[in-house]
Design brief:
By secondary structure, the chain is α+β, with helices and mostly antiparallel strands. The chain has two domains: 92 residues, Arc Repressor Mutant, subunit A (Orthogonal Bundle), CATH 1.10.10; 58 residues, 2-Layer Sandwich (Dna Ligase, domain 1), CATH 3.30.1490.190. Helix content is 46%, strand content 17%. The protein contains six helices and six strands, in the order ααβααββββαβα. A hairpin with a 5-residue loop joins β4 and β5. α2 crosses α3 and α3 crosses α4. The mean pLDDT is 87. Bound molecules: zinc ion (ZN) (2 copies). One zinc ion (ZN) binds next to loops. One zinc ion binds next to α6.
Length: 151
């Protein structure tokens, strides 16, 4: 809850600074993303959730608002190259972006919390002198649930 209020205040300040109008729609979209922290929602899913509280908001507004929130650093667009852009909250306490597991059968996205790449990054630095600042790793496969169902 504290996070919610804090982020909303930050949003208002940032929007004003960048010359954007602070509309209730923009706030409503951010609310949904904050309330669903840990989820990876598509524009359509965000729209369905916003609509519950703000029936007047149209899908075009959602499509316009998400890139603005992304530009301001509040959300991340996650492109798992399956034809569906998903959005998630940008957690400021996070050093690295986490990794994603995408189930090819049900489309479920799971987050990998551990940073598995520390060792690889150290190796790359050692062998190539290249300092890695971030990485994006996507794993494609079949989730545990779908494997169970297939039995
Ligand atoms: Zn699955
Ligand atoms: Zn994620």
């Amino acid at each position: 809850m504290v996070l919610l209020i804090q982020r909303k205040n930050e949003l208002s300040q940032l929007l004003r600074k960048k010359g954007y109008k602070i509309t209730s729609q923009r706030k409503a979209v951010l609310d949904v993303v904050i309330e669903n922290d840990g989820e990876h929602l598509s524009s359509q899913e965000i729209y369905e959730l916003v609509k519950k509280k703000h029936p007047d908001v149209g899908i075009a507004t959602i499509y316009r608002t998400l890139p603005v929130l992304e530009e301001l650093g509040f959300v991340y667009a996650v492109d798992l190259e399956d034809g569906c852009i998903r959005y998630e909250l940008n957690r400021v306490d996070q050093l690295h972006r986490h990794h994603h597991l995408l189930c090819e059968r049900c489309g479920k996205v799971t987050e990998v919390k551990d940073d598995l790449l520390d060792e690889i990054e150290a190796k790359i630095y050692k062998n190539y002198g290249f300092t890695i600042k971030d990485h994006r790793v996507k794993f494609y496969g079949i989730c545990a649930e779908c494997q169970r169902k297939a039995l």
